[in-house]
User: Which sequence fits this backbone?
């Protein structure tokens, strides 16, 4: 395998190992050495690829954002009409890949990390803006005006975050994505009077 391929493979392994290690530890208080062990690479190699722990955590956050974006965009390509577009955004946010305990826990840990890391805060802001933009675009044709669409989008964003929180904290596995999407869609129907 070419050197670039090996490097990319090891970087990916470290990112995935970091997600699993964060969930196992229950916080971002993990070491690069523990992550490297899980990825079957040396700690020195992990530092070579990412510099330090913060850079590795930012790489994990970027990975999560790309996976989320791809999940939403894949569903939006086939969505026709505002209701299908809304369902596509929600299904992308709460699909099996996004709604796994490991991923949810990593996201929640990054919410806390964003309080002390300017780059993590910037990335979290990108996520919020992207989610709001997608939700408002889907809701605007369903609502009486743009302000109503933005207000409803904020409520839906809060519901998604709340569902993620319950998923992370549930001992029984928590809610599933399809049920969560259906619940939010019922809420939207009530809000827009359908």
Assistant:
């Amino acid at each position: 395998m070419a050197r670039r391929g090996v490097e990319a493979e090891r970087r990916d392994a470290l990112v995935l190992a970091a997600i699993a290690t964060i969930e196992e530890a229950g916080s971002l208080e993990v070491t690069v050495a523990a992550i490297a062990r899980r990825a079957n690479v040396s700690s020195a190699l992990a530092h070579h690829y990412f510099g330090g722990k913060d850079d590795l955590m930012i790489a994990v956050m970027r990975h999560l954002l790309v996976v989320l974006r791809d999940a939403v965009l894949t569903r939006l390509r086939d969505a026709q009409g505002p209701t299908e577009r809304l369902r596509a955004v929600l299904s992308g946010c709460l699909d099996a890949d996004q709604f796994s305990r490991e991923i949810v826990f990593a996201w929640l840990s990054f919410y806390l990390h964003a309080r002390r890391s300017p780059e993590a805060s910037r990335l979290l802001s990108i996520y919020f803006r992207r989610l709001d933009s997608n939700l408002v675009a889907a809701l605007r044709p369903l609502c009486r005006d743009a302000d109503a669409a933005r207000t409803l989008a904020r409520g839906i964003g809060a519901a998604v975050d709340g569902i993620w929180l319950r998923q992370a904290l549930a001992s029984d596995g928590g809610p599933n994505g399809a049920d969560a999407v259906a619940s939010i869609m019922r809420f939207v129907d009530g809000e827009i009077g359908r």
The CA atoms of residues 31 and 166 lie 26 Å apart. The chain has nine helices and no strands.
